[in-house]
Design brief:
Largest sheet: 5 strands, antiparallel
Strand content: 15-25%
CATH topology of one domain: Alpha-Beta Plaits
Distance between the termini: 45 Å
Shape: elongated
CATH class of one domain: Alpha Beta
Order of helices and strands: EEHHHEEEHEEEHEEHHEHHHHHH
CATH architecture of one domain: 2-Layer Sandwich
Mean pLDDT: 92
Radius of gyration: 35 Å
CATH superfamily of one domain: Trigger factor ribosome-binding domain
Helix content: 40-55%
Number of strands: 11
């Protein structure tokens, strides 16, 4: 019925040329003609009862051969792949068609190719993540700042005080660019959000005083037309507040949390800081391990896999942007001055890196014989449903075809591979069972 030839292309694609026997083409043209006759009116004939020659006369032989080619491609595609000994990782596409004789060129995405290289000698030290006494003291000072209260005073304002301005107005180049009431400012000369010189101008003022002064706006001012301009400010001080920082003592510890002593607070704070530094250090360590692994690997993958990775990234952004920025996806794109297609394309380098890392980790897992059993997946699936508080009578039965189960498989495999890679890099013996990572809730998938 057909003959094929196969050419393996770069970037993991194959071009399969299929030449179909004319007898099969004629049979398919008859079928295509019957379909046209059923779906389109022909005056003087019942639907589906139109002579073949009349259909050919109306649509033309070339168009009918194209319809026949589509029918044949659907019919023989699986056999073509089998005969070509190809296992595609995505749908193929019709690259070209020649009508007489009927020759189809089909582009098929092939599995990725990963050459990992030697990794037995990979070594990388994990940096220490202890919390120093200085870091702990800085954190305690931040807690003091967070619990600082203010006391209204009658004296002139000093650095570190807060002032409430009944009104403030500023103009430059004949344009009023500030006109506000009830403005609260902390007199901190290091605050980069305040116009340089404004803090110094407010120091020494008392409640009820008004002052007019001039400042030169900075060269990086938010409004380009006012950069380096001479600005006239008028302020009226309503009140001056003196900061009251709490003492670092047992009473402060009891206010911050359920701690009996300051030492209890310090111990808890140090523990939480160490946990955070541990997490940050391991994230950086994993990134460094992956970078080292990628140096030793050669990876090729078809465009279709990169497209899937881009789609997943885009989907994640479309969920997170409204949650984190409290704005719609459409408003986000409008503020960015871009379209969804352009934004998706901007993710290409990140998606390529992410896909490459996953493929290399999966190859490392295969080489190290790291697996995920069905029992592991069932346990993980049950934990996820428990976490989502889905009642038993509403739970979908476990199946490897569920998206959330496939995501769990990938996450478990990647997590175990990373744990094994970490032990390898530190010169530790391999473990038979790696740590199982938790799965983030995915209500849509579940």
């Amino acid at each position: 019925m057909f003959t094929i030839s196969k050419e393996v292309l770069e970037n993991c694609e194959a071009l399969i040329t299929v030449e179909i026997e004319e007898s099969a083409v004629q049979n398919a043209m008859q079928k295509a003609a019957r379909n046209i006759a059923r779906e389109n009116p022909f005056p003087g004939f019942r639907k589906g009862k139109v002579p073949y020659n009349m259909v050919v006369s109306r649509v033309g032989a070339p168009a009918l051969r194209r319809d026949a080619a589509e029918l044949l491609l659907d019919e023989i595609y699986a056999d073509v792949l089998k005969q070509a000994e190809v296992e595609p990782v995505g749908p193929g596409s019709l690259d070209d068609i020649k009508l007489e004789p009927l020759v189809l060129k089909i582009r098929v995405p092939l599995p990725p190719v990963v050459e990992l290289g030697e990794v037995a000698d990979l070594r990388l030290d994990l940096e220490a993540h202890e919390v120093t006494d200085e870091e702990l003291q800085t954190a305690l000072e931040q807690l003091r700042n967070d619990h600082t209260t203010t006391r209204t005073v009658s004296r002139p304002a000093a650095l570190g005080d807060s002032v409430t301005l009944e009104h403030v107005e500023a103009q430059a180049n004949g344009e009023v660019f500030i006109h506000e009431h009830d403005v609260n400012l902390v007199l901190d000369p290091e605050d980069r959000n305040i116009v340089p010189g404004l803090v110094d101008a407010l120091v020494g003022l008392s409640a009820g005083e008004e002052k007019l002064f001039h400042l030169t706006l900075p060269e990086d001012f938010s409004e380009p037309t006012l950069r380096n301009a001479d600005a006239e400010f008028v302020v009226h001080v309503e009140s001056v507040g003196e900061p009251l920082k709490p003492e670092l003592d047992d009473a402060f510890a009891s206010v911050v949390g359920k701690f009996e002593t300051l030492d209890d607070l310090k111990a808890d704070l140090r523990e939480r800081m160490e946990a955070y530094k541990h997490e940050q250090a391991h994230e950086a360590y994993h990134e460094a391990l992956l970078a080292e692994l990628l140096k030793r690997a050669k990876v090729q993958f078809p465009e279709v896999l990169l497209g899937e990775e881009l789609d997943e990234m885009l989907k994640t952004f479309k969920v997170r942007i409204p949650q984190q920025l409290r704005m719609s996806w459409e408003d986000f794109l409008r503020l960015q001055g871009t379209t969804e297609e352009q934004f998706r394309e901007s993710l290409r380098p990140r998606a390529s890196k992410s896909l490459t890392e996953k493929l290399v980790l999966e190859e490392f897992a295969r080489r190290e014989q790291i697996t995920v059993s069905e029992e592991d997946l069932r346990d993980q699936y049950a934990r996820l449903l428990d976490q989502l508080e889905i009642p038993n009578n509403a739970r979908r039965p476990f199946s490897r075809d569920l998206v959330v189960v496939e995501e769990s498989y990938k996450q478990l495999l990647h997590g175990r591979a990373m744990a094994a890679l970490e032990r390898l890099a530190q010169g530790l013996p391999a473990q038979a069972a790696e740590t199982i990572l938790p799965v983030e809730p995915d209500t849509a998938a579940a």
